[in-house]
Amino acid sequence: MKEPVHDDRVIIGYNGKDDAAVVRLSGDKYLVQTVDFFTPVVDDPYQFGQIAATNSLSDIYAMGAEPVFALNIVGFPIQQLPREMLTQILQGGADKAAEAGITIVGGHSVDDNEPKYGLVVTGEVHKDDLITNDKAQPGDVLVLTKPIGTGMISTAIKKGIADPIAIQTAVKSMSYLNKYAAECMDSKMVNAATDITGFGLLGHLLEMCQASGVSANIEYGNIPLLPSAMDLAKKGIIPGGTKRNLAFVSQHVKFSSSITPIQKLMCADAQTSGGLLISMPKSVAIDYIEQFNKKSPFTAVIIGEIITKEDELKINVV
Question: Which CATH number fits domain 10-129: 3.40.525.10, 3.40.50.150, 3.30.1330.10, 3.40.50.970?
Answer without folding.
Answer: 3.30.1330.10
